[in-house]
Design brief:
Elements lengths: L10 E2 L2 E8 L4 E3 L11 E3 L16 E6 L3 E2 L2 E2 L16 E3 L3 E3 L7 E4 L9 E15 L2 E14 L4 E2 L1 E12 L5 E10 L10 H11 L12
Parallel strand pairs: 1-13
Antiparallel strand pairs: 2-5, 2-15, 3-4, 4-9, 6-7, 8-10, 10-11, 11-12, 12-14, 14-15
Length: 217
């Protein structure tokens, strides 16, 4: 019998949040006047400030919404969860260009302002793409399935999903907005391209598209 000892076990994370880009210009290849629907790559602004995001020349990618629950239980990233995040916490990418041919795949990092940088990492293993047009706006939806890991040791590595939506309003010369959602594990734990449609619906349901901040090209 062991006395005075304790054993802790890392758990699988159950969490989600949405994020977007503030400030700077979003560009794509081939460049305008071609529509974003024909893009082979899209580049979002590289952050250059962690405060006053979107003011003047300051650029950030940051958390915009953290639901209290996910998959019917406590969201680990919300207040009351194991590792709560804050609205406006920074998110970062290893590369800020999204390759829509999926020859290269992104690595995504996020962290609370009070924990070490890049503590949480999503490494994409596969990607899927869909496009649509609705009442003068064009949408490019990109979904990535991959692995979530925690250098802090609270969570074991497990499957996760990253979905991003680029929105161009007003035709091929219109402004382009960016928003995204991260989820671990993927909804229903189904690592299939069809999951992208579900996450696209989640973006709309959370009102991210309605709150998008557009950057003029």
């Amino acid at each position: 019998m062991l006395v005075g000892s304790s054993i802790s076990f890392a758990a699988v994370a159950n969490g989600t949040f949405t994020f977007n880009s503030t400030g700077g210009n979003i560009s794509y290849t081939p460049p305008s006047p071609a529509s974003i629907l024909g893009a082979t790559s899209i580049t979002i602004p590289v952050p250059n400030a962690s405060t006053n995001c979107g003011v003047g020349a300051n650029v950030c990618e940051q958390v915009t919404s953290i639901p209290g629950t996910y998959l019917g239980i406590q969201n680990d990233f919300a207040a009351g969860g194991n590792t709560p995040l804050n609205i406006n916490d920074d998110v970062t990418f290893t590369s800020y260009t999204f390759d829509l041919t999926f020859a290269t795949l992104p690595i995504f990092h996020f962290t609370s302002q009070t924990t070490p940088a890049n503590r949480f990492t999503f490494t994409a293993l596969s990607g899927s793409l869909s496009t649509s047009s609705v009442i003068g706006s064009d949408f490019v939806n990109v979904g990535y399935l991959g692995t979530f890991s925690d250098s802090g040791g609270t969570y074991t590595s497990g499957p996760a999903l990253l979905a991003v939506t680029f929105t161009q309003t007003g035709g091929s010369t219109g402004a382009v907005g960016f928003s995204g959602v991260f989820a671990t594990p993927p909804p229903n734990n189904t690592p299939e391209p069809a999951t992208m449609a579900l996450l696209g619906s989640a973006l709309i349901g959370l009102g991210v598209l309605g709150r998008k901040r557009l950057a003029r090209k």
